[in-house]
Structure formats: C-alpha cells, structure tokens
C-alpha cells in the first residue's frame, strides 16, 4: 500500500466525513479516507456496496489483475434481462473501484491500469455477448457451421478498446459481424442469419448501454460500422469485405488499425483479420495517408475551436490525439512492409518504429513518456467522478485533487507542467504530420464594405432586392444581445455570405430566408462559428435555400439542423429505405428510456434531420417524386414503430402487459390509411392511422396495478396520441388523425380486430370501403398482419350493387370538391378540382370496389399507380387509360411536391395542365357513364 503525503486539509476532511458516514463503528482507515476525498465515484460506489472496502485494504487482492466471468456458477439460459443488467453493472462498479484505488492510492503504473481496464472490459463485453446469444437462441435456435458448432457473433473492439488502452470512463466503439449466412436450427422458428444476429446485437447493446437503477456498463457507439449510422447493425464477413474493398475511406483505414476481436480466439478469427488486412495495410510504402491525416487533424482542430474547448489534454495541440496521429500515420505508411507494425497497441508500435529507425530513440522516449503522463492525468480526471472528460478542471476541489496527485504546489504550476508536456508532443507532431498552410481567401473589400455600411449598391453586381433584407437584419441586431465574440464572428461571416449569395445569384427572398435562420441563432455563437469555419456548410445553406423555401423555413425553425450541412456526402444521401427502423433503434440506444421528454425531443429531431436529407436530395434532383414519398413513408413508419415501443414500455411499467404478449408480440397493430397507406407521405402530411388489437376485455394485465386488456390498449393508443400531437420545443411529431376508425370520432381509440371486421361488414359506408383500398398494416405481429389481410381482401372483394356504388362514389366526390377545392376559372387546384388528383384516386378506388369480386388481384397493392397498372392488365380499363391516368397523377404529384418545397400552395394555372385535366375529366365521365 502506498499512501504518499497527507491530503490537503479540505480533501482530508471530506474523506473523513464520508468514511464515518459509511462506517460509523469502524476505526479510521487512511487509505479509504484518501480514496473518498479524491473520488466522488468511489464515494458513490461504496455507498452502493460498502463491503467493497475489504477488497481495497487487502494488498494481496489488490495485487491481482483478475477478470473473472461475471456469470460464473450461473446458467446463462436462466439469467433474465434484469438479472443480467444488475450483475454486469455491479461487476463494473466493483472492479472500476479497484482501479480507482490502484491509481489514486497505490500509485499504480498507468500502462498497467489501462491494460487492466481493457481486460475487464473484454470480459464484460464477451460475457454480455454470450448471454445475448443464449437468450435469442432459446426461441430461435442457433446458426451452426459445417461441424455443427454454434456460430457466435463476433465483436470487433475499436479505438482504445481495440488497442487495450481503454480510458477509465470511455465509451466503447464496436463493430459486429458473423462468419456464415446460415439459418438457425433447433428453435421454435428458424431465422435468417441477419435477423438472428441483429437480435443478438440489440440485446448486447442494451445489456451494456442501457441505464438502470444500477447505472450503466458502457456507452456503446456503433457509428464506426460500415455505412455508419445508416448501415445494418451487423454484417457477414463477405459483406464487410466487400464494403471495405469497394467503399472504405481513408479515415476508416485509420480507425481499423485499432480493430481487435473481443473474447477468445476462434477458428474464424484469423479469417476475419485476413479479409481486413489488404484494406488497412498497403503492400507499398504509402505516404498518401499523411495528407489524409493532416486533414483529419485540421477538422479536429476546427471542432475544438467551434466547441470552444480549452485545456483539453486529448484534442488540443500536443494532446493525446497527436501522439496517436504520429504513431498511426507511420503505421499506415510502413505497416504493409513491416508486419511487426501491424499491432493495435500504440506503445508496441512506437517501440517498433524506434527499432526500425523511423523514429529516433530520444523522440520515441519523449513521446512515450509524455503520452503516459497525459494518459495518467486523463485517468485522474475521469476517476474523480466517473465522467468521460479530458478537460482540466475549473472547480477548486478537482483542481486541488489534481495538484496533489501530480505533486504540484498549486494549479498554476500544474498548468505549466502540463503545457510543457504537450509542447514536447506538438513539436514531434508537426515534424511528422505538419500543417497545410491554410489558404488565405480575403473576402473582396466590396462585400466587407456592403456589410459594414449596410449598402448593397457598393457591390460590383448589386441585387437591389437584398437591401431590404439587409436593412431588416441590421435593425434586428440592434435589439439582440450578442456578445463580443459573436459580433466578431458575424462581421467575418456576413461578407462571406454576401459573396456566396452573389455566386449563386440568389434572390432577395433567399437572402431574407437566410437572415431569418441567422436571427434564430444569433445569440448562439457556436452556430455562427460553424458557418464561418465550414465554408461548405455556408454554401449548402445558400444552395438549399435557393432550391426550396420549405428547407429554409425548416432550418430556421430547427437550427440544430445546421450541423447536417457540414458533410454534403451525408446531406444528399438519404438513409436506405430498409434502414430507417434499424437507425432509429440505434439512435434511441443512447436515449435514457426513463426520460419521456428527452425521448419526445429525440423522435422529433430524428424526423427533422432525415426530412432535411430527403428534401435536400429532392430539391437537387437526386430523388424523383416517387422515391421521395417512399423515403418519407419509410421514415414515418420507423417513427411510428419507435413511438409504439416507447408507449408500450411506459404502459408495461405502470400496468404490466396483457397475457401472451411481450416486446415483440404486443397483440397491437397499426393500420395506415390515405397517403401513409398508399406510400405517398409528403413533407407536411398528417398520418391517418387506426389502432387494433387481438384481446378481449376480460384478460387482465400482469402488473400490480392490473387493468383489463381493452383498457390497456385504449390507454396505449391515447399515449401514442400524446407522443405525436404534443407540441414541444421541437414542435409536434406528426398530426395524428384517427377519424377513420370505426364510428369515427365517437368510436373507441383502439378496437379488437374482429370488431373492426364486423363493423366493416355491417356498418361501414362506401367511402370507408374506398379508404380501405389505400390501407395497409404498417406495424403488427405476423398473425395480426395475416388476419388483417384476410379481412381487407374479404371486404374489398364483396360484390356490390353497381348503380349504388357509382352514386355513392360520385356523391362523395362532389361533396369533397364543393368543400375543399380552391381553384377558379384561371387557377387549377391540383388535388381537389375536377380532373385533378382526387378524381384519379376515386377512379382507382371505384375500379377496385366494382371489380375485385372478379379479380381479387386488384387488392394486392394500396398505391394508385400499381392498382391502375393491375386494372389495365386485368382488362378493367384500357392500356391508354392507364397510361394517361398514371402520367397525369405523377405529373400532378411532382408539381405538388415542388410547390410544397417552395410553400406555394397547390394551385397552378389551368393552361399548365390543360391536356391532363381534359383527359382525367373525360375518363371520369366515361367510367361513371356520365353525359360528355
């Protein structure tokens, strides 16, 4: 045991008070008192498990570097989720407390401590992986290899975890993979490998990442995986190899240097490393990486400035990151030629670089010594309160702790000591990596003058329409509190903005829109700095506002979206259609499941971010109108699913759950109508939804506050309405319209599916059957999906009295047109006027209701285009009629989309669509046999 010198009096007093509160009957123990004075985390841990003090004062136990299996003596299949989470979190608390004591009181070598933390982390991750695999296998069986051995999911640890140099309070970067794409065997139902491993991955992440009453094991970050946040959670070996060989980027090579498989080696481990090796290490000496790493470092430096990070020993000049850049740059340059450099360990790589004379002995010793000192300081900072920080403290208690641990007389001496360490690192970094001389691009004096004097006329190509926008903006500035730093940045930013507006020949309306955005963020200097220090982001803001008034309004309403403008490669590449649900699940792994307000904000921010990406791709022609609607529909479906999961979790906590249900089989389903049902969701669409379930009212839920199942599902639906329709700081989520449910606004909010069927058969009006044409179940377990499909097919295929059907459809259409059409003799309402979109939709619905008893194939799809295609194929309409209606419908929708993006209503001049209007009107009259 090593106690060292006496703690400063305030810290010793704090430690003593805490000790006697924990152990009032015990004699004082100096080691425990010191630990409690130096670490708030140790105080919390010993409050949670007071008996752990016995371990801390046992020299023999503290000398061990053991990492036992958290589940030893337990059968994994018997360990439920709550027990698993508790065991893992108590394990972390025990061993992280041990490391805290080693570092603060036993003066342990930092290289040993970070290695021990990494060893413990490996055991936690591997144990959680084994538990998750066992849990999913119980229901679904296991994927087996050629020798009939289970194929476990392989977990690749990245960053400091991969290098076995983990921080005390680090998050962990993981990538998941599996060797073979084989179906599971031996379970109640067989699953494809991708589905099986996705379930394992989700359970593993939750086991580590979820915050419970016992805390959290690790924050899990999956963004380093192929395709980032939009990529699948887990990929096969083949898919990973294809990705890195075809699409891998330079920064991913840098990241993959640290990739290390967690857990015992298997027969597939070497195969995995071999498939990545050609991507990471080139066979030739590869100096191209220096340029890439230089740019990466500049981006980090920009981020440090933007976030106004000071005294940061990781990201600042001469910080930990610069040592990593030096060593990993030289690994990438020469690692293809020297296999000894192909290691995840920074210190091993540094030693090898010295041995092959790439780095001199003095320089290598300096980098190693200074790196370990900074890592020791980082360790101290994080042990103080188990927080992931690399910023030197600005509060007196933690400054005093750091002074004591670094043996400095006061904090000013502490800063001098640290600055000297970082200066030594930075000189080596500049020697190896260097900096590009940032090109000075002085903004022409005319733009500076125009801003300073509020006079657009001084520009060489003045746009007089800008003057009023500039006057208004300057006028608002006089009434706004903006600090000196904000004013300086704004004075630099506005000339650049004027130049960009000139380059794009932007209108006065666009300038006004951008000023509106700036007005919203004017007091938040970080956003002004973002636009100033990222010229690309400023350019995207101007381009998008030129393309779309809706985008400008969207960004001005939600300024957090400015962050999305930094990387055009992401901005103009919407998430793949199949990935929205996985991405929102991954997004919510980082959200506290007990914080409803935060979850509601997260739902809205997820929607706003992805809508912006879709709109950017739409406005610039990357996506056509049909694809835009597909993306907006997929986004809405993902959000509905996540909202149902949130509501279900809340209800289950309060009331328990109905019999024979669980998180995956809720006995609850969502039917989408209208635009959502027909894959035609727009930017400002509401969602027409109906909620159904499969329980009767006599079943009771499982909780201590049990209620009958019917009440449970009614309350679940009401909770969903609250999640969607409540206006938060980020607005509403979607306007949720449930009036299409049986008996409309007076009907139950959630109804048994068989009652839904009975209503449709006995009470529903023709217009409700028309609505059913454009309906589909977007959420629900397979039994509910199948039953709804049977009900829908049965209703739509009923044979109807022809004349009554015609009269009902015509009368409903006339009623809608009378109340909703906004056109006149010159302007044409794309949606509601005669010859418009609603006519085509009614024709489509009529074709289904009048012919499905003969051709049930007409009920296959819920969107107009494919229904019309089937109607022509089956002979219900001519091919010419189909072509004309589809062409008109798509052209109307495309124009409607453009008008929406520019917020110009839905009316156009009649001449613009005269041919389509005439054709649709004539077709309406022919189909309904009206006088021409």
Describe this structure in words.
The chain is mainly alpha-helical and 932 residues long. Strands 2, 3, 5, 6 and 7 form a five-stranded mixed beta sheet that branches. Strands 8, 9, 10, 11 and 12 form a five-stranded mixed beta sheet that branches. β9, α31 (709-725) and β10 form a beta-alpha-beta unit. The protein is globular, with a radius of gyration of 32 Å. The N and C termini lie far apart (101 Å). Residues 284-288 and 436-442 have low confidence and may be disordered.
Helix-strand layout with pairing:
Layout: H1 9-22, H2 30-38, H3 40-48, H4 53-56, H5 59-63, H6 81-104, H7 110-140, E1 141-143, E2 154-157, H8 159-162, E3 172-178, E4 184-186, H9 193-209, E5 220-221, E6 234-236, H10 237-246, H11 250-256, E7 260-261, H12 269-280, H13 288-306, H14 320-334, H15 346-355, H16 361-385, H17 396-405, H18 411-432, H19 445-453, H20 465-477, H21 484-503, H22 508-521, H23 525-533, H24 535-547, H25 549-557, H26 568-571, H27 580-588, H28 596-619, H29 625-655, E8 668-673, H30 674-677, E9 687-693, H31 709-725, E10 736-737, E11 750-752, H32 753-762, H33 766-773, E12 776-779, H34 782-796, H35 802-820, E13 827-829, H36 837-851, H37 864-873, H38 879-901, E14 907-909, H39 914-927
Parallel strand pairs: 3-5, 3-6, 9-10, 9-11
Antiparallel strand pairs: 1-4, 2-3, 2-7, 8-9, 8-12, 13-14
Helix pairs in contact: 1-2, 2-3, 3-6, 6-7, 7-9, 10-12, 13-14, 14-15, 14-18, 16-17, 16-18, 19-21, 20-22, 21-23, 21-24, 22-24, 22-25, 23-24, 24-25, 27-29, 28-29, 29-31, 32-34, 33-36, 35-36, 36-37, 37-38, 38-39
């Amino acid at each position: 045991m090593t106690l060292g010198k006496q703690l400063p009096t305030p810290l010793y007093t704090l430690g003593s008070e805490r000790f006697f509160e924990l152990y009032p009957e015990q004699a004082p123990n100096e080691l425990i008192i010191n630990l409690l004075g130096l670490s708030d985390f140790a105080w919390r841990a010993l409050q949670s498990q007071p008996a752990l003090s016995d371990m801390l004062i046992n020299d023999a136990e503290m000398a061990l570097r053991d990492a036992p299996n958290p589940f030893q003596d337990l059968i994994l299949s018997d360990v439920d989720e709550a027990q698993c989470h508790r065991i893992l979190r108590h394990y972390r608390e025990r061993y992280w407390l041990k490391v805290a004591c080693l570092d603060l009181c036993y003066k342990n070598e930092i290289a040993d401590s970070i290695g021990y933390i990494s060893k413990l982390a490996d055991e936690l991750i591997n144990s959680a992986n084994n538990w998750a695999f066992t849990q999913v296998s119980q229901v679904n069986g296991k994927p087996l290899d050629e020798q009939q051995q289970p194929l476990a999911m392989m977990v690749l640890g990245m960053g400091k975890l991969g290098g076995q140099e983990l921080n005390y309070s680090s998050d962990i970067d993981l990538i998941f993979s599996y060797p073979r794409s084989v179906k599971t065997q031996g379970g109640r139902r067989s699953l494809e490998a991708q589905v099986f491993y996705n379930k394992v991955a989700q359970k593993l992440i939750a086991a580590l990442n979820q915050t419970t009453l016992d805390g959290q094991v690790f924050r899990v970050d999956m963004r380093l995986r192929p395709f980032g946040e939009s990529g699948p959670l887990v990929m096969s070996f083949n898919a990973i190899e294809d990705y890195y060989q075809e699409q891998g980027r330079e920064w991913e090579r840098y990241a993959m240097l640290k990739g290390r498989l967690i857990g015992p080696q298997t027969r597939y481990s070497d195969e995995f490393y071999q498939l990545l090796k050609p991507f990471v290490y080139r066979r030739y000496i590869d100096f191209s990486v220096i340029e890439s790493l230089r740019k990466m470092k500049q981006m980090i430096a920009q981020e440090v400035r933007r976030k106004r990070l000071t005294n940061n020993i990781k990201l600042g000049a001469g910080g930990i990151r610069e040592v990593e850049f030096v060593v990993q740059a030289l690994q990438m340059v020469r690692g293809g030629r020297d296999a000894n450099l192909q290691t995840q360990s920074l210190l091993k790589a540094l030693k090898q670089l010295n041995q092959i004379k790439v780095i001199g002995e003095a320089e290598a010793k300096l980098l190693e010594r200074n790196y370990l000192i900074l890592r020791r300081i980082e360790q101290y900072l994080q042990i103080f309160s188990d927080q992931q920080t690399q910023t030197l403290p600005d509060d007196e208690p933690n400054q005093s702790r750091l002074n004591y641990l670094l043996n400095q007389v006061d904090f000013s001496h502490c800063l001098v000591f640290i600055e000297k360490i970082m200066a030594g690192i930075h000189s080596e970094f500049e020697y190896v990596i260097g900096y590009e001389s940032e090109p000075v691009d002085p903004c022409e004096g005319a733009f500076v003058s125009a801003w300073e004097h509020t006079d657009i006329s001084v520009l060489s190509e003045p746009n007089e329409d800008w003057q009023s926008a500039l006057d208004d903006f300057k006028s608002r500035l006089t009434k706004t509190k903006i600090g000196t730093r904000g004013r300086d940045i704004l004075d630099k930013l506005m000339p650049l903005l004027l130049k960009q507006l000139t380059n794009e020949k932007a209108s006065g309306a666009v300038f006004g829109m951008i000023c509106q955005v700036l007005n919203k963020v004017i007091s938040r200097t970080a956003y002004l700095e973002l636009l100033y220090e990222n010229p690309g982001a400023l350019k995207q803001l101007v381009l998008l506002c030129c393309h779309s008034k809706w985008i400008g309004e969207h960004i001005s309403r939600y300024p957090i979206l400015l962050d999305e403008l930094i990387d055009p490669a992401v901005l103009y590449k919407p998430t793949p259609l199949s990935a929205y649900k996985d991405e929102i699940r991954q997004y919510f792994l980082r959200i506290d499941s007990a914080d409803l307000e935060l979850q509601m904000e997260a739902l809205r921010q997820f929607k706003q971010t992805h809508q912006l990406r879709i709109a950017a791709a739409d406005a610039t022609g990357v996506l056509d109108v049909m694809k835009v609607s597909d993306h907006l529909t997929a986004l809405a479906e993902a959000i509905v699913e996540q909202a149902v999961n949130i509501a279900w979790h809340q209800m289950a906590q309060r009331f328990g759950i109905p019999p024979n249900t669980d998180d995956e089989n809720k006995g609850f389903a969502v039917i989408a109508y209208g635009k959502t049902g027909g894959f035609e969701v727009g930017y400002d669409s509401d969602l027409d939804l109906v909620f159904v379930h499969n329980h009767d009212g006599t079943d009771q839920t499982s909780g201590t506050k049990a209620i009958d199942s019917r009440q449970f599902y009614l309350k679940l639906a009401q909770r969903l309405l609250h999640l969607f329709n409540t206006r938060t700081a980020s607005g509403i989520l979607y306007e949720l319209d449930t009036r299409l449910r049986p008996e409309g606004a007076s009907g139950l909010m959630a109804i048994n599916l068989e009652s839904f069927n009975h209503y449709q058969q006995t009470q529903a009006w023709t217009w409700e059957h028309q609505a059913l044409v454009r309906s589909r179940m977007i959420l629900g377990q397979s039994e509910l999906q199948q039953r709804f499909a049977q009900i829908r097919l049965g209703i739509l295929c009923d044979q109807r009295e022809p004349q009554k059907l015609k009269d009902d459809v015509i009368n409903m259409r006339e009623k809608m047109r009378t109340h909703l059409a906004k056109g006149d003799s010159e302007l044409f309402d794309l949606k509601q006027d005669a010859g418009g979109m609603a006519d085509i939709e009614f024709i489509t619905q009529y074709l289904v209701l009048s012919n499905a008893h003969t051709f049930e194939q007409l009920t296959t799809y819920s969107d107009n285009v494919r229904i019309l295609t089937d109607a022509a194929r089956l002979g219900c309409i001519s091919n010419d009629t189909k072509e004309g209606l589809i062409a008109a419908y798509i052209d109307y929708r495309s124009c409607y989309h453009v008008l929406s993006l520019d917020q110009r209503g839905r009316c156009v001049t009649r001449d613009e669509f005269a041919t389509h209007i005439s054709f649709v009107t004539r077709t309406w009259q022919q189909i309904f046999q009206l006088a021409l």
